[in-house]
Every structure is written in structure tokens, then in C-alpha cells.
Amino acid sequence: NVGLGKTHLLHAVCHDARKHAPDIAIRFLSCEEFVNGFISAIEKGTLPDFQNQYRTVDMLIIDDVQFLREREQSQEEFFHTFNALYNNRRQIVLTSDSAPQDLAKLEERLISRFKWGLVTRLEAPSYETRIAIVQKKARIRGIELPDGVAELISEHVKTNIRELEGALTIIYANAQIEGRAITLESARR
After folding, report:
1. What three-state secondary structure class fits 26?
2. Hey, which end of the chain has fewer CB within 10 Å, N or C?
3. Distance of CA 122 to the CA centre of its chain
4. Between 103 and 40, residue with greater pLDDT
5. Which pLDDT tens digit goes with each residue over 29-77?
6. Residue 18: in which H helix or E strand, if any?
7. CB contact at 8 A, 92 and 85
8. Is 27 helix (H, G, I), strand (E, B) or coil?
9. Residue 120 has what pLDDT?
10. Pairwise CA distance, residues 179 & 166, whole Å
11. SS3 state at 123
12. Closest Cα to residue 16, out of 84, 86, 93?
């Protein structure tokens, strides 16, 4: 689901790949950027340049591939790009808000290819992980949290990391507006 760190994980993949192979050619973009670039290439008559841009990399990383839904020509282009990279033994990394088999309105041949690789699900963070995330975000932002505040936030926000950050921001902003330090009582309010 949203806010669980898929894009963050993709950035980590890029950094790790560059660490192990500094000269690796990586193309990282959102599916929306891919679709818009494809449309633009058709309009400008630069489709071969577009294809070369994506089919010759060592690693193609596409975030939110579910946005290919209902875009028949873009799906066709991505299918051929996927095949070109796969046949040349290149790395393809994709994220989506659903498992491949649950990507409605996506061509079956794309779904089949998505299943060729490692498919993993990112779950909402556990209570302990949520506490650690809140504490780290507070530390990074220079926010002093008294005992119990990270736990309180983590008890009430269970779905995703963005909402954890949002709760921390609200608590901090309210303390700043009131001109007071954060307390467990102010966090409860």
C-alpha cells in the first residue's frame, strides 16, 4: 500500500547497485514519466531515441507500474522494453500497489512477465518498528520526544510511515505554536 517505503526501497537498490558497480547504467523513473515520455516521443517522432534510452540500460527501475493500466500503447511499448532488457540479461525492478495477478486491466502477457521475478509484499510496520521510525524521524529533525510519545503515536497510527511522520509533525507544530515543549499530555491532545 501507499506510504510503506516502496520508492525509498528503490533508491536503496540504486545506491547499492552503484556501490558494487559504479559505472552501471541505471534508469529510475515513475511509470507516469515512462508513459508521458512515450507519448512525447510519438508526438515528436523520436520513438527510436525513446526506445534506445530504456532498452540499453543495465538496470531499469519503474515505480508504480500499476499506472500502465488502460494504456494499451504504453503497455505494448513496455512489453517490448521488458523483453529487450530481459533477453539481454539486464535487471528490471518494479513497484506496484498490488501483486502482479491483482493488476486489473493490465495485459496478461505483462502480468506473466512480472511474475518471472521475485515478487514480495511490503507490510505495514509492526508496533516496535513504528516506534523506531518515530524516534528516528524525531532525531533527524532535532525534535526532543519525552518518554511515551513515540509509543502513543505508534499506538494510534498503524497504516503507513507517512501518517507517522504527519502525526509527529502535528505534535511538533502544536508545541511550537503554544511555545511549549512536547509533553505526553500535549501529544494526546
Report:
1. strand
2. C
3. 11
4. 40
5. 999 999 999 999 999 999 999 999 999 999 999 999 999 988 899 999 9
6. helix 6-20
7. yes
8. strand
9. 83
10. 20
11. coil
12. 93
Are 100 and 66 within 8 A, CB to CB? no
Q: What's the rounded Cα separation, in Å, for the pair 9 and 122? A: 10
The b/e string for 141-176 (b: 16+ C-beta within 10 A; e otherwise) is eebebeeebbbbbbeebeebbebbbebbeebbeebe
Integer-rounded Cα Rg, in Å, for the chain is 21
Q: What is the DSSP letter of 119?
A: -
Angle at 6 between CA 87 and CA 14, to 5 degrees: 55
Helix axis angle, 127-141 relative to 161-178, nearest 10°?
Answer: 50
Q: Say if residues 41 and 47 touch (Cβ distance below 8 Å).
A: yes
Cβ contact 92:117 at 8 Å: yes
End-to-end CA distance of the chain: 28
Helical ranges in 56-160 per DSSP H = 72-87, 108-114, 127-141, 149-156
CA–CA separation, 74 vs 78, rounded Å? 6
Question: Residue 38: which of 29, 30, 47 has the closest Cα?
Answer: 47
Kindly report, residue by residue over 11-22, the tens digit of the pLDDT.
Answer: 999 999 999 999
Strands (E), the chain: 26-30, 59-63, 91-94
